[in-house]
Write a structure and sequence with these properties.
Layout lengths: L15 H7 L2 H13 L4 H19 L2 H12 L8 H10 L2
Length: 94
């Protein structure tokens, strides 16, 4: 059996402008702050690589994904506890 080809590279260039444009609005400020704080060279490249993955994920999320995530965070679905309550209960079980 041959080697499976890799899926095509996501269509977001690894530039600051492209990454910023693809990120969800709530993440853009943090990205720009981290990029500005990084020293030129390898440190900036690492920041760009890390945030590129987030940008790709943000562009692939659908409205249904966002609604599901919000319901899990707030406990807005029947039988689902808010994420904060669940984490608090796990922290207290130690």
């Amino acid at each position: 059996m041959g080697v499976l080809p890799h899926p095509a590279e996501p269509g977001i260039p690894r530039t600051a402008e492209a990454i910023e444009g693809a990120l969800a609005p709530v993440r853009r400020g943090a990205f720009l702050e981290e990029l500005q704080a990084a020293r030129a060279g390898d440190e900036q490249v690492a920041v760009m690589e890390r945030w590129h993955l987030r940008a790709v994920a943000d562009t692939r999320r659908t409205d249904a994904d966002r609604a599901r995530a919000a319901a899990l965070r707030t406990g807005g679905r029947d039988g689902v506890r808010p994420l904060g309550a669940l984490l608090a209960s796990l922290g207290g079980a130690r």
